Model the fold of this input.
Amino acid sequence: MTSTPTGSPQLSGDSLQDQIVVVIGGSAGIGLETGRLARARGAEVILTGRNPERLQTAAADIGARSTAAFDATDWDRLDEFFGTLPKPVDHVLVTAGSSHYATLADLDFAQARQDVDEHLFLTLRVARLAVGTVRPGGALLFMSGTGARRTGPGLAIAGFLTAGTPKLIADLALEIAPIRVNLIAPGFVDTPLSAQILGDQLEARREDLRRTLPIGRVVGPEDVAALAVHLMTNTALTGATYDIDGGQQLTATG
Done:
């Protein structure tokens, strides 16, 4: 395994040769595409996910080093997983979780609590477990979003987590330095999860974004994966939030 000195920049572009990348939530979408790109850049990849069958398919697809099937908010299993990792690992990406959108009248408190677990307590636990597991100068990457930055009915849970997570990431970047901590905030990304949520409205959403986004196309998981790998390899980046929405926030519907 190669370890870049924390005081020196990497000079090999986006190479991850002989490094170990862990993707928590890596069986589909952004996590899987990041694992795929990391492998293409020379990394050994460890994937986790809830569904064992889907996880094994993903691992075979990209040639993952190993897998672990568990719910990331099962804290005992999460602790056990970090305890079995080869040390040190170089980078950890957490994509597990989704956002809960509901008006107050329709709020599912159990689901809201799960959302807080996935976006607040999972972040804190992974950061604590990273100390002694992730090498100095390695990266922790977490996932947020841009859609809940606006205000409105149904955005209370997603909104307060979206607003608070960048501050959490900045504080963690100082507390566990020299491990680097960054946040990726996508807008709409054309993933299987988006297809599941939108159903027969998916193609209309794609067409609207093609028409209105400044980039003239829909953001895909491979776009977010490219940003994730850049944040792994650029050792000057920590404590920040990186939007990737194709300019959606600049439009009237953003």
Summary: Residues 109-130 form the longest helix (22 residues). Residues 20-194+221-243 form a domain with the Rossmann fold fold (CATH 3.40.50.720).
